[in-house]
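Students often ask why we bother predicting the structure of a whole assembly rather than each chain alone. The short answer is interfaces. A chain on its own may look different once its partners are present, and contacts between molecules only exist in the joint model. In this exercise we take two input lines together and write out one structure for the complete complex. Read the inputs first and try to guess which parts will touch.
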Amino acid sequence: MLNQRSRFIFTALCFGFAFLYIPILLVIIYSFNDSRLVTVWGGWSVRWYVELFNNENVLNAAILSFQIAAITATFATIMGTMAGFIMARIKKFRGRLLFSGMIASPLVMPEVITGLSLLLLFVSLQNTIGWPGSRGMNTITIAHITFSMAYVAVIIQSRLTEVNESLEEAAMDLGARPLRVLWDITLPIIFPAMVSGWLLSFTLSLDDLVIASFVSGPGATTLPMLIFSKVRLGVSPDINALATILIVVVTLGLCIAAWITSRQNRSVS
Amino acid sequence: MMSNEENFIEINGVSKNFGEVVAVDNVDLAIKKGELFSILGASGSGKTTLLRILAGLEIPSQGSILIDGVDMTSVSPYDRPVNIMFQNYALFPHMSVFDNIAYGLKKEGMEKESIQEKVERMLALVKLEGYEKRKPNQLSGGQSQRVALARSLIKEPKVLLLDEPMAALDKKLRQSTQFELMDIHDELGITFVIVTHDQEEAMTLSDRIAIMEEGQFVQIGSPNLIYENPKSKFVADFLGNINLLEATITEQNDSQIVVNCAALGGELKFNQTEQSDALEMTVALRPEKVVIEKSKPTNDQQSHVKGIVEDFGYFGNLSIYRVRTESGHMIQVSKQNRDRVEQSIKWEDEVYLSWENDSLMLLGE
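Now the answer. The structure tokens for the assembled complex follow.
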């Protein structure tokens, strides 16, 4: 009885994982396909990778995307940490509810709306103060920071509410001034959460198509935008190679985040 | 400076409000130098808030705090000669035992060699030699408590504040730790202020106890004084077990009050000069001050009542009886089990209860 039931659960699990991961596996396998046709297997080869690295458009888009992702992740982590810190540590201030609502709203706002409203903002800013002169990397980065920050703030806030405030009070009691406490106690304890936040922002930024399409200008094409426009003309095999590289990068990032978090959890709990 | 041996810590008219809630209500207190002082109260009585005010973690809404003659009311926690040990110990999880204990000295900017030496001495004091490299998550509850104690003692504060120091330990460990804490207190001569809800702990540890209720002190004194001469019904009931029996004043003059207490068999006289406005009083009698016997007491002078044992609890060192008297009142009695024999008094036995008249206490509300 129990055996039968656990076998059913095991089968369901296998199907679930298969549904999620076989398409990804196929992309990876077909990225090594020698054939020019995406659906026909023509033997192993790395020619699409070579082609990819000789394609200047792809390389430029990749460089742009990684730059945006890195800058976004860094700023979103700094600002999101500050917001999360205030939410977790300052119990009462005027407009707290409004503040928390405004932090959380980018999480639930449809991307189309966020993209459109940011575009309108940039256009009207340009008309009134002449900045930003042209839309491109700068506007995409600002847009990405705006929504990634919300994710970081939520991660930091939930981590900080787990950390007992008496740790900070104990440090203060032992002679550390507030800034010192932040540096010695609070930041080391929330560091893994900050790393997770950074990696999450990086992934979100790398992944975003909708918002980037809205706020980008003629000169700037991110990787997702490039892939999307290429696919519209028909799927070419080098897309598989590109996708494989992205998968590897994202998986590596997630593994590092998981490793850091588990290491820290072991020392905290 | 011949400073303030008697008023080493001075709390003058201190209040603390959190919005509408008054946590500490106009409290005055003086604590002597080197004293082991306990603040005892139920949860929500304001005792922890008062301790946090002493530590500087809360700023009083009113009143002032003086420590060793210096006004500390608005001095930040990092500038006070006071250290606190938190209930949950608050050990820094990312630091080793050594770094935890050394933290306070490092912030003082002390040299590495002196820190090393001091931490080692402190580890020896709390009997944790060899544990310096461990992380807090590798320690047992008792060990964590010692590290927390060492960390809060290393700066040699003028006052050590302890918030429920034993609450997280199991009963056996708690008893041995209590005595160790007293030894450490004797050795260092630092003034200790302990906050606890555990009356046994407060009684064992303290030179003096302050009993706190709803933000105010209801009685301050030595454990012995408070136990034997509680000022009110609340204090009597809070500290240890006690029989609280209803009584009515029948007569009072300048030197004595006569009450009628049905549970104790009628009229009782108390030598008391203070007159009472209310007629309803309470006669209090500690269970261990009642003698329980199967035969009628031979001494005719001694007052006694007859009753039937309704409940009986055997604790090894003592037995506790709940006796229903002829008048229908319940009286609790505890009896030291001095002889190594089978319990002679059991359920449903007819017994006689007797007591010395000066064991009785007359209490108002």
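Check your guess against this: Residues 171-188 of chain B form the longest helix (18 residues).
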